[in-house]
TrEMBL record:
It holds the Pfam family Abhydrolase_1. GO terms for molecular function: catalytic activity. This is 2-succinyl-6-hydroxy-2, 4-cyclohexadiene-1-carboxylate synthase. InterPro entries: AB_hydrolase_1, AB_hydrolase_fold, AB_hydrolase_sf, Epox_hydrolase-like. The lineage of its organism: Bacteria, Pseudomonadati, Pseudomonadota, Gammaproteobacteria, Pseudomonadales. Transmembrane segments: none annotated. Residues 33-126 form the AB hydrolase-1 domain.
Length: 274
């Protein structure tokens, strides 16, 4: 899969299919494989672009000077320019929605539609922010996500009651355990701090187009609960959808439901029959 040099570093992305463009922006600590079911279903009808966040998957390290989610949004816009994509439907889950909304607000002329999944555009509640920052400090000090930390971090992403022996759970745990110290310290931890120290975007949500925006959330999402999704949908004035039997990574926990909702939304945005 190809790379684009953005701010001096190689950004890894998938570009598959033809038709109206869809940009898939994923969660912190996950690579583009979290969209595998959606890529398979959407790419026969759409041009699907999925990127790896800096320090994730095959992307290079966080570029020097990257200090905010606005920088991440600008870098993603540079990728669209590199690919000659004028307009896109952006589907952002977790941090992908956090910077995706910033891209939509800064360059509305480039957006056909916006799906905000399992995300929150307000500030991180202070107790949670302090807790995550304490975890980042442990990772930074040791250069590894230790087994006790994995026991804390991995369950955050899934619905309660998921089988911890399942391939989905175990593969994610193994990927986190294998992250090398340099990548953790130079990219993953700084990206986490950028994410959880984000500024408040809620006062600006009224500027998003409610007719071309959709909020989705796993009905059992622990870090980004449905109450946050409802709050954002109300501020935007847009539709919202709960994904049944899903936690934070709803794209993989209930892929059939998520894919169906995205195909419906895309068909309405692009007047394309699928």
């Amino acid at each position: 899969m190809p790379f684009a040099t953005i701010d001096g570093q190689p950004l890894h992305y998938l570009d598959q299919g033809t038709g109206p463009a869809v940009l898939l922006a994923g969660s912190y600590l996950w690579d583009q494989a979290m969209w595998a079911p959606q890529i398979a279903a959407l790419s026969p009808h759409y041009r699907v672009i999925a990127l790896d966040l800096w320090g994730h998957g095959e992307s290079g390290p966080l570029p020097a000077g990257t200090q905010s989610l606005d920088d991440i949004a600008r870098q993603a816009l540079a990728l669209l320019d590199h690919l000659d994509v004028d307009r896109v439907t952006l589907v952002g889950l977790s941090v992908g929605g956090m910077w995706g909304a910033r891209l939509a607000l800064s360059a509305p002329q480039r957006i056909n539609g916006l799906v905000l999944m399992d995300t929150y555009l307000g500030v991180e509640p202070e107790p949670t922010r302090q807790y995550y920052f304490s975890l980042f400090k442990q990772i930074e000090d040791t250069g590894v996500i230790s087994a006790p930390l994995l026991d804390i971090v991995v369950p955050i992403f899934f619905r309660p009651g998921i089988d911890p022996q399942s391939a989905l759970y175990q593969d994610f745990r193994a990927k986190l355990a294998a992250l090398p110290p340099q990548r953790l310290r130079e990219s993953v931890v700084p990206m986490g701090r950028i994410t959880f120290a984000r500024d408040d975007l809620l006062p600006r949500l009224g500027a998003l187009n409610p007719q071309t925006t959709l909020v989705m959330c796993g009905d059992q999402d622990k870090p980004r609960p449905p109450s946050e999704a409802e709050e954002m949908a109300e501020l935007i004035g847009c539709a919202s959808v709960l994904v049944p039997e899903a936690g934070h990574i709803s794209s993989l926990e209930n892929p059939g439901f998520v894919t169906g909702a995205l195909l419906k939304f895309l068909a309405e945005r692009t007047c394309k029959t699928v």
